[in-house]
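[[Local backbone shapes]]
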Amino acid sequence: MDNQLIERIVAEIEKRMKKSVLLALTPAPGYQDEICQRINTFSHIRFSLFVTTQAQVSHDLSKWCHLGEMHNASEFDCQQLSTYHALFVPYFDKKLVGEIINGLFISEEGKLIHSALAQNIPVIALPYFCQPESELNEILGLNKNKEYNLLIQENISRLKSMGIIFHPINDVEANLINHDINHQAKPEYKPEIKQENNNRYITLNEVMNKPGEYHLSKDKLTDSAIEYLKSLKN
């Protein structure tokens, strides 16, 4: 057995030992190259790429192709998700938040995420595009409406309860390598159920519809509803 053959066998064994992750490549309003460059340093993960139709236009795919095998969204069989350790969505924007929360199957990436959640495949996302307080949204001027920001935050909390995990990019590789994210505890989210008694929390949407009917000292409010009432007093 010559040295070249040994090296190929070792390389193949090392490749198979890496965690297999499907990366959903979608368009983004910023940080495209920076995030791409950083993901290229994730040496302990074996990526495959799910490339949406819009991403094929907005990204330079030559910067991504060496990460792993590329699959066009229109040709990808979602039953293949079971072969991956996790689904990674680096460019998770507010539009996608709304689509998943409302159970809609509109975009190619939305359909993929719904399928991953249905199969209990962990979904990892970067928070920079959907979190209102992120530096990117501040730069773009997309965090000026406090009440709207609170609504987005409440929806992100619901996504977390479904099994979507938001990590800053510094933590993504380490968490994929060192933890069995299939068994991480999901934060509990209890949807509001309308009851005859008052033994429940009043949601942000209820307060926004009738702000004059609720009081900080008298009513049981969700955190976002409390912040909204406080903002009206300022």
